[in-house]
Protein 1
Amino acid sequence: MSNRYVVKKIVGALLTLFAVVIFNFFLFRIVDRDPLTKYRGRSKLSLEQRETMIRRMGLSGSKWDQFVAYIKSTLQLDFGRSFDSTRPVLREITDRLPATLILVGVSTVLTICIGLYIGAKAGWARGSRFDRVSTSTTMVLYATPEFFFGMLLLAIVAGRTGWFPTGGLRDVGTNNGFVASLLDRTHHLVLPSLTLTLGYLGSYSLIMRTSMLDTLGEDYLTTARAKGLKESDVMTHHAVPNALLPSVSAIAISFGFVIGGAITTETVFSYPGLGLATADAIRNTDLPMLQALFLVASAAVIFFNLVADLTYGLLDPRIRHSI
Amino acid sequence: MSAVLEVRDLHITYASSSGLVPAVRGVDLEIAPGETLGLAGESGCGKSTLAMALLRLVPPSTQITGSIKLAGQDILTMKPGQLRAARWAQASVVFQGAQHVLNPVRRIGRQIDEAIEAHGSASVSRAGELLDLVGLGARRGDDYPHELSGGQKQRSLIAMALACDPLLLIADEPTTALDVMVQAQILQLLDNIKRERGLSMLFITHDLSVLSHTADRVAVMYAGRIIEVGAGDALLRNSLHPYSKALTASFPIIGDPSSRHQPRGLAGDPPDPNNLPSGCPFHPRCTVAIDECQSVDVQLRHAADDEERSVACVLVGKS
Amino acid sequence: MNDLVPSTSPRDMTWARRKQALARVWRELRHDRAGFVSLVVLLGFGLVALSAPLIADRSLLLAAAGRNNPDLASPSAQFLLGTDDIGRDVLAQLVWGSRVSLFIGIFATVVAVVIGSVVGLVAGYVKGKVATVLLAIDEFFLVVPFLPLAIVLAVILGRSPVTLAIVIGITSWAGSARLVRAQVLTLSERAYVERARALGAGTWQIIFRHVLPGVTPLIIANATLIVPGAILTESTLSFLGFGDRLSPSWGKLLDGAQSSGSITLNAWWYYLPPGLCIIAVVLAFTLFGRALERIFDPRLAGR
């Protein structure tokens, strides 16, 4: 991969991130003229406390002064204090980030692997039994809100059987060693990550199936067959590597949906990550938290898109060698 | 000596959205060891379908009847495993390099070696040696297709075709997308390789002029049938079927200055395979057609004055 | 105008052509099993939504309506789908919920399609700086994760159903703008647009008279595919606390079911019906949209 390609993609990602930061300011300071009215405890504030709060939130001075103050504090990762807990927003976020990273990470890896596998197999054997069964299943998965999955799983395998915990990150009061704690956390992770995986499996496998169908008519598959290759080798060595390329970008775009899915999934399972924090912030109209959570979610998607662009560059020699 | 390739009464009908399309309608062919047969015709006449059918590389919904014997074994009755073993080892294809016949995300050397591996001898890479042989140089095995020029791609496809030491090369328009200089080099290369290794070759082209130095015999196809076949030079210099005449007249014969001054193109388009004209399918475009041509579809038959020549035309060989 | 006399005014010819095109779509749809079945399902849901006042009185949605009923009662002759955590009839909420869910889904789609089509048409037809800026905005909306964006917008703009629809519309137009633009780019190369330009037609006249009719089928098929996404987004936002409990959508019902603990209490009649309704409608819209796509663009047949 040429350095220019990498640099170009990184600069593009940074520009997009910067656009999000500006957009955030626009939303919270211009569309919403007086964010403080959304603070529920405002009636109890003394005039002095109110002044302090306005200053602390960077709401004093002209819009330009506010903008400069906002950019400065954002660069220092200072997002103010939560309306709800009154702790610094940054602290709230760093506390909850690891739980979400694990949940989204595990689910994304599972979704990509299973989704691509099903999609590739279905597209390759288009019209077969496997294709018909898997495509109709994935269509239903696609049509189901992931939190409804979560509720069903909760009702069946947690409520009825008690095989899995109904929520939380770990059992309270269990602190007997590393292995036990790891097992306990994994036990708590199973249902949420299964929910998120099932919720987005559908779109990933449909994406892969479509790009597989697009490669089916390609001449290089005929070449490979002419050489006497087995059908399975034609598929894995020739069709799949080419079908992956368009899927990579489409999957990167769908990653934004997975982030959204984490919000509802964590809510269903009371899984204390950033998603649950978002749901709480909605119910409490906690603007400073929402503002920062939106930035974090956007940054995550932009980063994932960057990774996808760079992966694309690695997978496609035409980009790897160009420029 | 028995023929390397023997095709008998081959019919190929493929399914399209508008119904069944008869692409090849009764073709007989044979190629002797070391012989090159040129197969010429306009695009859509069925020659590429025929070439692909020789290794059963047509869509599964395609109906093929007749027989295709490669080194005595009928390709059409083989089980999948036998077919895979026969592909590339008995006959290989020199594809046209212009389209995506090479996998864009796989190195050239890998694409050559995988053919050898598919036939069980995985031990040594022969890609380098083969690329040397076609004048590309072994280093090019590490390249991806987009890094090669059109001529280089064509050379790598020739190297690929030689990977399993086949008896027969099926060259499917191997020079079509190339400029004249490169075209000559590729033709020369194919000719040398064929001679050195004693290979048979089926050379498919829409351009009869490339056959003049390559082909021992030439067959001309029209609307899914062979309408004239004969010894190469004789047919190219003195074709008998009005269609072959029109094709040979559209290129200058080297060494015959007068031929350059009378280019005669061919009017009209090839017929729609779904809706062939009655009688001789060529009659609507034929400049010498007579009334009989609208009703009588003449089969290939020996021309009176040339032992090796067969022609499918009312006006020729009537004795 | 006399119907019996064949008229040849351009307007009538256009109408005749449109009627023919519609007839063709209908004919092909009748032979597309998935498309036809999903259309029937959609019409069924539409009928229920429209006749909600006839099926259940609106007052049943009020908090007071459940005061004298048992809470979380299982289905019975009186309450076919049982009651919720404050004793209200679940079936009544489900019926009225179809109104809210379909209304928001369709209204949001209209917003998205209008923005997407205008941006796509302009970005495709007008070259230069305008197009660059529009494409940058489009790119931005494609990259920014749309649920967090919708959440932030809904918090700032308000929580009413109409606002939710607008918010969902604002977050879902970027894809259709791309599609429309790509189609416009190919169309504007076509001879009839060039001819109109040569005859001196203005930019806007060309866009609305000549380019828009060409992209309309695509816009319709695309809109049918935006609706299911919008309905899912609506249910998600309602589940997260937006929307109105006294005029609940299906997503809001699920929110109530979740927060009232109906799952651990095994009150399946509370959470199962709204979830299944969402799946049915989303699936039907998706299949119907794909059928339309196949009809308008035969290259996609067999997908």
Note: Chains C and B do not touch (no CB pair under 8 Å).
Protein 2
Amino acid sequence: MSDQLFDLTLTEEQRITREAMARFAEQEISSIARAADEAAAAPEGFFEKTTELGLTILPIPEEYGGAGAPRSPIANMLNAEDLGKGDMSLAIGMLTPLAFVNALLDFGNEDQQERYLTPLASESFQAATIALMEPKATFNPKSLDTKAEKQGSGYVLNGTKSMVALGASSQFILVVADTEDEGPCGFVVEAGCEGLRIEQSSFMGLRALELNQVVLENVLVSASAKLGSPEKPFDLQRLLDLSSLGLCALAVGCGQAVLDYVTPYVNERIAFGEPISNRQSVAFMVANIAIELDAMRMMVYRAASKAEQGLGFHREAYQAQIICAQRSMEIGTNGLQLLGGHGFTREYPVEMWYRNLRAVGILQGAVMV
Amino acid sequence: MINLELPKKLVQAQGMAHQLAANMFRPIARKYDKIEHCDTPEELKPVAQMIAAAGSMRGGDKSGGSDDGVKNGSNMMGIVSMEEMCWGCTGLTLSIPGAGLGNAAIAAVGSKEQKEKFGKLYCAMAITEPGAGSDSAAVQTTAVLDGDEWVINGEKIFATAGERGDAVVVWATLDKSIGKAAIKSFVVEHGTPGMEVVRCEDKMGLRVSDTAAITFTDCRIPKENILGSAEIADTAAARKKAFGGVMQTFDNTRPQVAAMALGVARGALEITREILEKEGVNADYSEGFNHSSLLETEIYRMEAELESARLLTLKAAWMADNKQPNSKEASICKAKAGRVGNEITLRCVELCGSLGYSESYLLEKFARDSKILDIFEGTQQIQQLIIARHVLGKSSQDLK
């Protein structure tokens, strides 16, 4: 029991940051989202521009060249919500290096942080990523096919990872692999090492995001590449839960974009002599989007605030994931429905949101906040 | 600062209400469901005294602020207590003397004198008529001023505590031709000549709670028993404001009804968990959703839905405590909790099979009780209308 009051008020710092994020999302992200989706790539120079927000560099400790901001799941979650409103795929790309940084902050020792975070604390955009998922319908993060076997003083990694954000451009890939003694562990694999192959893959949505398949064939890493120590164990559940929250927050942002888009549309679209929003069947769909979107948001906020306070948050993150996976798809499909045939065309953004929101029930371990 | 955990003060209030629900309501919930029509259950009388002493049911505690001005006050206190009590039994909760909906109306719009005079009475609310339910602007009951008295004529139905209470807050129109602006509320005390309780409804659930039909035939009450002004607003804006004032009571009471739905649904879920655990189902969130059994994922889904409804309800009450307009949020939490509460209680009966359907457990009773919570204090559809009008920026003329 705490003396702290239930409160939904942002701190002054959060309020100012949110304004900056919202401005960036509106001016630099939403405006190019469709073109990026069609091109299946972020436009040239996009990620460079995102460095002005300092997403990656802020939480890196000062001794490694960062700004040394405190580790804050809430701040990251709010950023994800605001950027996700601009575009989910580009936002995931922007937050991918930060996810790697967060994993290193939570599970890495000082040597590892110095080695892997220093190169990321740069003025220019530096990619690094987490590789957890595997190309398997029944994929279970607790029972991985990717194996790490002890060999000499290091490990040999074998397996295939899927949906690895920025896989091809990352200099560090945190590969989660199963070990015989300790179960799933994280290993930092450096770009270009022998036996590492990055393949292209395409998906229904998140097309602007480079989502690669990473193949590991007898990749040798040193023991110092393995995250986790007795005092700071590699906590896969924490990585999964914080990633769920990141993805859920992105979904809240995208859901808000849907609501903000359909509201004027149904008010302006005339049928049978009046706006279609004068009809309950249309208006109630909008009301339900508003209801479920706020429900999603509250679930994410609660889990993130528990994480921020150092309280257990597994159950809350699990529940947030259930709600967000289901409701974000409902919002995606109903948002499109409200535009009728127009919604099905690529002239409007709702079909893109529909495809992107489908990922909320799928993507795991990518957006650790 | 964003924090969605309850502070110590609310957790303690929750704990006290839970003790009451577990020790006093649960053991007698089935008994009074069977008895149905009766006077106020004896067991509830000390409860009423206790609550009056604690002053926490509706209104009362205004403290709970922090240095930066954020408040967790009486609205939040009300919903955490309400949820716990309805975890025990919604029917009994609604039968506690002194906690009538009419009391909420008097607290919201009554003058200082009226609050003093009627505040200690147990006041029911009589809005609905045989021909006017959700469309509360269509009431046909009339009030005519005759000298120093109002003369009330009409028929009211579905007045919770309309028989057992001391008085009824009645909605009546001063002039049917004017519509909403002419609707006023009046306090009528039991025993006033011309007021008659003609029957109490036989209901599917909430059986112990009395739901009265009351007729008013040339029923004369003192002039000062009108709540709010007797003036009929003459401009459109003033009319809207006048009726809006009456409807504002709902911004505070809807989260309370949402909290009832949270309580009954949580009660059902916990019983379901106990039954299923005995039979080897351990829903402990240890495996991923796709790698859990169907029964486990059903529990996870219901608990997640319930949690989201709970947070929406806390949000609406928190806004009320912090003087933020919360009409939309009050309807959002009522819509969500109302439907989720009903879905959960019904699904719990199904998941527990013959045990769930049996009167040996309270699951079937909770499934009957929960339905009304998606109806009274504004149906699911009325909440959606309100929410839609807010989101779309529509008037009741455009979006009917």
Note: Chain A touches chain B through 55 residues (CB under 8 Å).
Protein 3
Amino acid sequence: MDIFSQPDVQQAVLTGFAWILKLTGASGVLALVLGVLLAGMRVSPVPVLRGIGTTWVNTFRNTPLTLVVFFCYFGLYTTLSVELSSDLDLNVFWLGVLGLSAYTAAFVCEAIRSGINTVPPGQAEAARAIGLTFGQTLRLVILPQAGRAVVAPLGSILIALTKNATIVGTIGLAESANAMKQLINDNGNVVIPIFLVFAGIFVALLVPTGYLFNWLGNRLAVRR
Amino acid sequence: MSATSTMLYDHPGPRARIRNRLLTVGFSLLTAALLWYVYVQFDEKGQWAPALWKPFLKSATWIDFILPGLWGTISAAAVAMVLALAFGVIFSVGRLSAHAAVSVPAGVVVEFCRAVPLLLMIFFLSYGVPFITGAPFPAFWAVVIGLTLYNGSVLAEAFRAGIRAVPAGQSEAGYALGLRKSQVMTHILVPQAARSMLPVIVSQLVVLLKDTALGYIIAYPELLQQGVNVLSANYGNVMQAAIVVAAIYIAINSVLTWFAGWLDRRTTRTGRTTVRIAPVQDLGTAAA
Amino acid sequence: MRITRIVALAAAATLTLGGLAACGESNDGGAAAAGIVNKASKDKKLVIGVKADQPGLGLQTGATYEGFDIEIAKIIAKGLGVEPGGIEWKTTVSLNREPFIQQGQVDLVVATYTINDERKQKVNFAGPYYVAGQDLLVAAASTVTGPEALSGKRVCSATNSTPAKRIKTDYKQIQLVEFDSYSKCINALTGKTVEAVTTDDIILAGYAAQEQYAGKFKVVGKTFSSEPYGIGLKKDDKAGCEKINEILKTAATDGSYKAAWDTSLGKSGKAAPTLDTSKLTNCG
């Protein structure tokens, strides 16, 4: 394990996981906002909005993330000249965030939609009966109740997102998977300790997250 | 459209109809403008050049690159799915065992496999394991085993939820008949849970199929590797190749998703199942 | 219970598929016997690791491979008594060349494989059959003359590759963009989001010579490193290594080396280099 006592190796590991956490944080927030909007669109009275929401979900859910991230870089940046930062790494970072968010939002949308289905129809009918509009029904009655049911699924999505963040390495960000590749490349004789350290950090980050969300989900669940 | 969502709004009145029409026109224009912008920008960068797209009209492109790649993807996904199902059943039952000696190790394995990114797992299997065994690790099996461990652990958790969602009366009735614990599990709980799990299993297949794309990091000849990396080295059309490959993935996965939905509706319609679980594909477990 | 039957059928079908796939895979690996010379004369077969995505060097063009590395591999196979039909090409990437040799997944590696001390710890090298050098590929109209002129500019190379590492240590003022394949770098160069692509000159020449890039790019032509390309084989196979060096010596004089160049990279108009047989490794 002495290779992990070298300062530059420690630096590579730290930078790698710092990128993972930043990617997860930024994409998590964006994906949640986008996912709620998409879910709203998919249950809205306007067919075009429903169409956009459905297309979005079907496209992103069925494409490998590697390709989504690829299109963000080579489509948005190289071809459409969308530059998000003049700094090299930050530009890749934000393009990666866009890809991860667009992809994850499709899953968030579906989780929320199935959450909406757990709310008894009587709730929506009552809301309509007292004269609430579609927006008000959704915002004041349905989503707050659906939200409780989707805490656990959203936790799983967050965990998947954290792991998926490693894919941004394919467009050149020095995140954890790239750091591990580099280390294995340079130290072929200590492959196993290197893997265990990287896997261990993911386990340490994600297993507690999973338990936290399950606990929250159980606590907040509406007993029916 | 589920029953609830159509109950979210009334039949539109005159004002709502006008508003809906405005929204329709607005968003249609917005989408059209966006597509037009993309088209123009692609044109400016010469991405519509026929030379870049023509390779896809040649049969050799399909016979030598895309179809073998597709076979690589589908064969790995098929084998991994079968193994992942077995893994899922064994570890979900193991985790529900009353013996801590069984349930704790099963839990540790499942939690570990769920937390480690597939990218790291495949990479380790391919480059790390040979150092322990001293024997080569074929790329095909690195991909298949990586996918099995990861998707199997996700399925194990879904199965566990499914088994636990079978009403307690069922197992109580089993015990009352004098069945042993293992008999209650195999004859009563698992069959009922499995029935409600069908759509979940098919949805997980979509995830699995997409995840085979990660095989390209160890040069496993799947669709992404053959279609994007190798093919584009011949024709310099990495963007076009990626668009075609994405379309293939979307087509296959849409069929699978539709199949999952069909199974879901079918199992619901018979009205016999009381067990309902949120579909796993909604949990966003994909790693690729 | 019709549905149960459908599922059972589907499961059976998948199992069959899986079985087939497993069969297809089972005769991989376990290839290398005691020494390459014995194996070649006994089996009349060789598994050779090559690149699949490097135009001019090792490129999968459908069912077959072509390029300078491929031609060199054929010369060596022939010298060992193996006809082209007896060669099984196996795609390698930079990262798995040593493991492939060590684990016996391939008998030989001819894949733009630079001989260096670190790799010599793990594998044996015959050759070099060509001495490449790190260079830059830029737009045809560019005035860039070398890496010094690229301060603050963006330059693309393959993730964790030797050229990428050299840029990081020797030219810190260059902003390095890393992708997992050079095709992506070339795309970035076409889209003008990087100023140059850097790697070994003949790899760059291979891209520049491709039909679709004709007249668009040029190789700067001022190398700033020396990359002797070797043929990798098992570390303890000294006899095999010496035999391959013998074959290369013959190839240098009987015109087959020049022919190998002319049918591949020579198409770009670059004259065939001479193979300096005095520099061949001692197979230590």
Note: Residues 6-33 of chain C have pLDDT under 50 and may be disordered.
